[in-house]
Amino acid sequence: MKQYNITLLKGDGIGPEITDSVTKILSEAGMDIIWDEQLAGANAFEKYNSVLPECTLDSIKKNKVCLKAPITTPIGHGFASVNVQLRKYFNLYANVRPSKNLPSITTPFSDVDLVIIRENTEDIYAGIENKIDENTIHGIKLATKEGCDRICKFAFDYAIKNKRQEVGVVTKANISKLADGMFLNCFREIAKNYPSIKIREILVDNLCMQLVQNPSQFDVLVMPNLYGDIVSDLCAGLIGGLGVAKSANIGQDIAIFEAVHGSAPDIAGKNIANPTGLLLSAVMMLEYLGEFETANKIEKALYSVLKEGRFLTKDLKGNSSTQEFTNAIINKLKGE
Ligand code: NAI
Hints:
Helix content: 40-55%
CATH architecture of the largest domain: 3-Layer(aba) Sandwich
Bound molecules: 1,4-dihydronicotinamide adenine dinucleotide
Largest sheet: 10 strands, mixed
Shape: globular
CATH topology of the largest domain: Isopropylmalate Dehydrogenase
Distance between the termini: 23 Å
């Protein structure tokens, strides 16, 4: 078995609890990983006077792969989101968020299997805001041709690699004629290079309505940053909530894997958080590393625990602790 060096950010809130669960499961599944644990966010600020210290950045640069738990971002004041800073610093331009029904998690739909490809570095997340006067703010929605081209190309390449049939482009190009208009035009041009993939165009407001009525009609959907942020949380809701949603931030040669949810301060330290989102993100990480067999083994063990329904966390209407849920998965891995 190959040995890997992977940067680990345990984050804050429920971060440390769910990270411990996931690293334990990966180790029990036979992965040989040297976790290079680093700090980011408020914890890092306390120690290094920086929310994103050089040693953390250097570790990710060196290891090229990082598993990251959620990090709290102060709302409306304080430091800028560490998550956004990381994506920008390493140019992790593609945020991949698959949503597929999980066994025994009952939702209004049983046939959801779609993937959101969210542009991850531009749009209002570029953080360009100017105060014009006391009562007027300009928030800039950044779009570059390079940024639009590369995310659309990523979506088509993803579709080919993962044997998907269709890529849809999601914009508000009827209103944002320049920025979203360019995104749409880039999509149309790139699509010409992928004749085997079906395409569709949909406005984001219509998409939201269709998603809550008939989500199974969608396959791969590519969209600018803000729509991707909002729509992918909606899609997490379609498969059982934030506790089970996974994601990957992919760049040229660096990737950071993290759950979709945040640090959940309301349940932190109570041993009731659901580690599934981070575990499935770690499974995506194993697939990225080419460790398909172990990824499959972990996914099977998780599915089996979910199917049995004896050890579920509170968000999934069970009453097991994080630890009990984790142990149930480990027991499955051991064949018990
Ligand atoms: P949140 O995702 O932390 O929580 C929303 C709701 O979902 C809460 O009721 C929470 O208890 C529940 N929840 C979330 N994850 C869960 C899990 N694994 N198991 C069971 N229940 C879970 O969103 P919120 O409250 O808006 O954000 C809290 C903090 O997290 C904020 O500072 C925000 O900026 C940050 N955040 C960080 C992210 C990241 O590091 N990637 C992503 C999203 C938010």
